[in-house]
Amino acid sequence: MKILVLIAVIVIIFLQYRMINSRNDTYDILQSDNPDKDKFEDIVNRKCVTVFTNVLKDLEIINNLNEQEIKFMDKNNKQIFQKKLDEHLRYYNVPICLKYNFTLNIENNDFKSQINKITGYRYLHCQIKGRKKLILFNRLQDKYLYKKGNTSKIDFWNQDLKTHPLITKSKYIEIMMSPGQIIYIPYGWWMCYENLDGTENVFVECQSESFFSYFLKN
Description:
The chain is α+β, with helices and mostly antiparallel strands. It has six helices and twelve strands. It has one domain: Cupin (Jelly Rolls, Sandwich). The strands form three sheets. Strands 1-2-10-5-12-3 form a six-stranded mixed β-sheet. Strand 1, helix 2 and strand 2 form a beta-alpha-beta unit. The two termini are 32 Å apart.
């Protein structure tokens, strides 16, 4: 009996390892309107970039606030605001969640980020207020990005082609995000973004690890 249990455990770990480290480097972009949990998991498991719409439409705490109110709210109300968002977005965590990071970001209009690698097994970027342009590179573009750890030395928005000529060989996709949308970006991809309009740009980053991904992803 112990041998059968051990074999079963080994098989489960092997299958989880294969699933977690499988990759999909196509630039296909999927879209779904406020799916239920089963449909959401089915879509995310395809490991394609996916935009989910209308995911915040039932949150009154979002609909009743503007950017300035979020920026200047007092500490107590900000904690309440973060808690409501956190509770709502935990619904989208990876199953058998072991580790979860939730970050509320408030940035200026026209802010441009550096190129960063997605290091969480499930990474979700949820746009609350303002619009954003995302630039996404799949893992096949690693060799063109002049990596330094989990960041790129390249300033995508002001490229120095004499210093970083290989960036011209890279292929990427561009996605526009509006309030109420969540984008899923697969593990190992690279991202930078530009905030487009509004006095402030408000968004949430959620990263979650399952019990298996925490130990088995490479």
